[in-house]
Amino acid sequence: MYLGYSALTDASDSILHSYVQIAAIMLFYYDYLLTFAAEVSHVWPQPISVNTFLFFLNRYFSVCGNIVAAFLLFADLGNSNQRSVLLSTLAISRQCRTKVFSIYSCDIIVHAREALLVLGQIVVSATLATRTMALYHSSRTVVIGVLGIGIVIVGVTCWTLVAGGGSTFVPTSAPGCHYILSERSAIHLAAAWEASALFDVLVFSLTLMRTFKMRKMHNMAISLTGEGLMDMVLRDGALYFAVMALANLANIFAFYFAVPTFKGAFSTPASCISSLLCSRLVLNLYEVATPDNTGSGSSPELMTTVILTTRIELGTFKDDDLSEVESTGSSAYQ
């Protein structure tokens, strides 16, 4: 079906695909450098918890994964000279070289990259889920609902990868692995990103309902200035949802409507944007919860406990107890 496509003998589409990937990766590392000082200041001094673990996992899983992705985009491992340099650098013995590259194929690399993208999205979703559950004080209903839907979405995502069709690889003069997806595979991968987008809708809806409820309870106007804690939570949640909605929409549309060599071109950009925005959400919460940034009527300890905790204690709060907890912690949101 795709063998008649003219781009198979032209490296330009493959190179353009690679440039889209590398632009997103460069944006990710640029933002990483911008926020590294805040990470050292606000996150490193914190005790180890689920929240800090997920933050570092999201942060450095993406850092390492994008290094691999960038290398595979432009390194022509099919070239014998480059293979020799690579293996010498990795101190792989001559006896092992033949065996290593006898199992090497673009198919393995591409599927590994797809798995890395999915794992990265799962980590981001887990971070957003703990943030949302903490916002609801680990309400039993919210915890069960979010975890249940999250497990279903992870299952759907894994199924799309396993049940997807194959890919046709493009032998061009451009370095790296280049391929076109079959229609079936493109649809299955699009479904995985659609599931991720649905989870974003769930998280944003819960955040929106919570902030409106808190504002209504304390007769406070809704604002996106980010001056108060709840304003900041709503603002960051709205920005994350809006940006990710656009990124996911572009990625999903590319799977369905782009030319064969460009299907999936926006997966890496969507993953990079999701990871860096998730990191900024957490860093902003830590920054607001520091004593220097809290008002005189606010308790930093209470703010940290309510917003940043990830201890899911199902028996601690009942649904009817939420209003009492909100009244107790009202000063932390002002």
UniProtKB/TrEMBL annotation:
The chain crosses the membrane at residues 20-41, 53-75, 142-166, 186-208, 238-259. The keyword Membrane applies. Residues 19-63 form the DUF6533 domain. Keywords: Membrane, Transmembrane, Transmembrane helix. It comes from the Eukaryota. Coiled coil: none annotated. This is DUF6533 domain-containing protein.
